[in-house]
Amino acid sequence: MNPLITSTRPIHQATRRSSAIVRRSISSTPSSSHPSMSHQELAEGSCPHSDKMHEFRAPQDGDSRSPCPALNTLANHAYLPRDGKNIGVWDLVRALKEGYHLSTMLACLLSFGGVFLLGQIRCMSLVDLARHGLIEHNASLGHDDDVNGAEYAPIKVDKKLLHHVCAEGGKFLPGRLTLHDAARIRVKRESACGPLDGPHAEIARGEIAIAIGILGGKDAAKNGVDIGVFHNWMQHERLPADWKPDHTQGLYQTYKITKYVRDHMKELKAEQPPKETVES
Ligand code: HEM
């Protein structure tokens, strides 16, 4: 049996894994009044034994985070270990399927592709993803470029840059960031920061296309995503309230939306280069 298909995994196994994540997340900052709970959990009124296991909790000191809003969000909601450490490739696959309803194929492709590019087949921490030039690239939508040849790129979201990027949305459908907008935004970012090499340009297009595909729901290819939802997810690395994916994001569908962004970027570049730039 395929161990990835969580719905067919024995319940006790899933529970053991979930409990392990909760145990790990609460062991670092014990509270004196409730030894098994962190200050943050007490402050936010959450209890690890309740059914709120996947509620949002911001990272604590010492937790590891990446420049990827999707994976940070999964850690903030305990689909990945909340501390962002010791993550194996199957943890990634499982988290992408559980948190965002990715198909098994797409989850495997992204996870195995990611750890392969990183060269960390056994285990990784989220911060490892910030290693510049592996997956991480310049011309990001919410992060400054790697400066002065630093080995690790910035992880903190640049609010000003993200604000500018989101302000570029809504040009085709009011209040929505569509695939059309995404293409324009990527063209502008790459013209402001300098062109990306082929693989990184493809990665950058894929990131925004999948994000729109997941957060925008089943009609995202046509209607895009609500700009506020996208902005909150990028900035706070938090799932929308009452998050419940309405579709499975599959490989073919993702290929199509990424291709759409690529083709539209080509058209835009063939027209005259844009005058304004989206700069931080
Ligand atoms: C549901 C799946 C995923 C989605 C929707 C997603 C989305 C995104 C988005 C939107 C960004 C751009 C952030 C920015 O421009 O500031 C990003 C960045 C990044 N993602 Fe993901 N991601 C996903 C899965 C993964 C996986 C599986 C990995 C690797 C194991 C990964 C690694 C990265 C890295 C290293 C960056 C930084 C790239 C940069 O320099 O901007 N992501 N991701």
From TrEMBL:
Its cofactor is heme b. It holds the Pfam family Peroxidase_2. InterPro entries: Chloroperoxidase (IPR000028), Chloroperoxidase-like_sf (IPR036851). Residues 16-39 have a biased composition (Low complexity). Residues 49-64 have a biased composition (Basic and acidic residues). Residues 1-65 are annotated as: Disordered. PROSITE patterns: HEME_HALOPEROXIDASE. GO terms for molecular function: metal ion binding; peroxidase activity. The keyword Hydrolase does not apply. Residues 52-263 form the Heme haloperoxidase family profile domain. Residues 1-10 have a biased composition (Polar residues). Keywords: Heme, Iron, Metal-binding, Oxidoreductase, Peroxidase. The keyword Iron applies. Belongs to the chloroperoxidase family. This is Heme haloperoxidase family profile domain-containing protein.
